[in-house]
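As the next step, I wrote out a protein sequence along with its fold in C-alpha cell form, included below for the reader:
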Amino acid sequence: MRILFIFLDGVGLGADNPEINPFAHVEMPTLQNLLGGQKLLAASAPYVGERATLLSLDASLGVNGLPQSATGQAVLLTGINVPAGIGEHYGPKPNPAVAKYLLNGTLFSRLTKANKKAALLNAYPPRYFDSVDSGKRLYSAIPLAVTSAGLPLFTKEDLYAGNALSADFIGAGWRGMLGFHDAPQLTPRQAGKKLAELARRFDFSLFEYWASDYAGHKQDMKWAVEQLNVFDDVLGGLIENWNDGEGLILVTSDHGNMEDLSTRRHTDAQVPGLLIGSSEARAAFASGLNNLTGIYSGILKIVG
C-alpha cells in the first residue's frame, strides 16, 4: 500500500475555546464529517470512525521545554527520540547535532534503498535554491532528508508541468508573493484532486504545509481561519479522489502552535495523528502509536 503524509507544521490538539483556537472557531465540514461531527480538538481523540481514526500523540517525548521544528520533524523522519538524544528540543532549522540523524537514515533513504518510490510533493522557487547554494539559507529538516537520500526537490518547472504543488496548495503565493504571475492557480478542491493524483505515482509521498505554524506565530484569527477553510476544501478534493483500498492518508504535526493563538510560542499540546483509509490499514498503523516516534515504523509497516 502507499502512504500520503500531509505534514501540518505547528498544529496541536487544543481546547474547545473559539476565542483562542481557530479549530474551535471555524466549521470544517470535510474534517468534521470524517470525525463523526467532531472538530479537531483535544477532547475528540481518540476516535475511530468509518473512514478515519484520530489519535492524540505526545510531541514532548519526555524532554523538558517546548517542542521545536527541527527535532520534531527529525523524530517523524527517523523514529528516533532526537530531543532526548541531543538533550533538548531544537529548531527551527537543524543544527549539526540534529543534522546527523537526518544524514544517517530517514524514511526517504530507507525506502529508496528498498526500491520504493518516495517524493516530497512541494515545489520550490528559484530563489530558494539560490539561497541554499549561496549559503544564506539552511535546509529545514524535511528537504535535508530528501536531498540526503539522493532525491530531487521539485522546482518551478515541476509546478508548471503539474508534477508538484505550491506550499499553499493553490498557487496564490507564487503569484502574489513570489511574482510568478503566470503560475498555475488551483481551487482548493482541484488542489486536493491533484494531491491524490501525484500521490499515486509514489509508494510514499509527503506534502509539507508550513502556513499553519506561521498562523500560530502571527496570532491572527481571521488569517488562521482562512488557512483552515482552504485546507478543509483541499481535504475534500483529496478524499473524493482517494481509493482507501490502495493507500492511507496520514496527517500529523511536529508540535503545537496554531491551536492556541493566545501565545506566539509553540505549545506542549499533544498533536493529532489523523489516519484516513481502510479500517485494516488504520488499525495496523495505529497499533501501539502514542507519540511521534511511532510514525516512522507505522509508515514502513504500511508501505512494506
